Amino acid sequence: MVSDLSVAGTDATSANLRFTQVGDGAGQPANYDVRFQTPTINWGPAASVSQGTCSVPLVATGTAGVTTCTVEGLSAATDYEFQLVAFRGTLNGSATFGPLSNVAAGRTLLAGSGGGGGATGGGGGELGSVNDLSVTDVGPTGLTLRFTEVEDGAGRPARYDVRFDLPPLAWGAALPIVEGTCKMLEGSQVGVVKSCTVLGLSPSTDYEFQLVPYRGTLNVDAVFRPRSNVVAARTLAQAGSSGGGTGANDGGAGGTSTDGGGGPVEMEAGCAGCSSSPGLALLGLAAVRSWSARPRRTRHARPK
């Protein structure tokens, strides 16, 4: 299962995706169906990528290692969400699917703008822009954020205000980090990849994260750069919790599905769109989750 899909960068009409490759469950590199939609993405009606190197089917190069690909033909100054699923076999034929990946979010630039454009203020130079924020090392109550450090416009590494919330993230209402090393984050060296942790999250919960580089002092004289891309992740279930459910076959009735080799594979009841691919199964033992469900903002899922 791919769990680290991220948007590594955007321009006015394209987005660069990044993720770690996985196996197909039979010892070979998996292939990928990559889809996108304006928020909030719903896998069934989401469009499969048809322009750029992420075009479906995306052919893998290995069973491990980070790979990147490009989604082209997007609209300028528009928010998008991206998701993929690993599979083996032939789409619309004998494909065997793994669980859906995490959702990655990004915003395309204004038409005619460059990737290095920035805001100035306070008599200083141009601030850098973070567009490769991503999530790694997800656990039940914490995770790691990763991005490339930028300059503060005055020749020094920028500082970062990092925030999070339940989807969809709205910057003004989002929470600042209060637990983990992402709290009041100081830069260290321009151009290097920086990692920090967010702790105190709730298990089995969807979150979105975003940051903004700045110089100066927050709530005093800070000069801000436009905000980063938004990255999404779901925390893992607490150890010992039960994540099972009722089995379902491709037609939606009770029972089990098999992977073509006679082995039973659990599938969660009500899996939207499962009936569209006869023989849909898993690569491994994890259950297919319903991709249409998203947490309600009234749910008590804020940090403990």
Question: What are the secondary-structure elements, in order, as H or E?
Answer: EEEEEEEEEEEEEEEEEEE
- Record field, number of beta strands: 19
Low-confidence region ranges: 113-126, 243-300
> Any idea what the CATH architecture of the domain at 6-111 is?
Sandwich
Number of helices: 0
What's the CATH H-level homologous superfamily of the domain at 6-111? Answer: Immunoglobulins
Structural class: mainly beta
Describe this structure in words.
There is one protein chain. With 304 residues, the protein is mainly beta. Among the domains are: 106 residues, Immunoglobulin-like (Sandwich); 101 residues, Immunoglobulin-like (Sandwich), CATH 2.60.40.10. Helices cover 0% and strands 31% of the residues. It has no helices and 19 strands. The strands form 5 sheets. Strands 11, 12, 13, 15, 16 and 17 form a 6-stranded antiparallel β-sheet that branches. Strands 3, 4, 6, 7 and 8 form a 5-stranded antiparallel β-sheet that branches. A 3-stranded antiparallel β-sheet has the order 1-2-5, with no helix packed on it. A hairpin with a 3-residue loop joins strand 1 and strand 2. It is globular, with a radius of gyration of 20 Å. It starts with 5 loop residues before the first strand and ends in a 39-residue tail after the last strand. The relative contact order is 0.17. About 24% of the residues have low confidence.
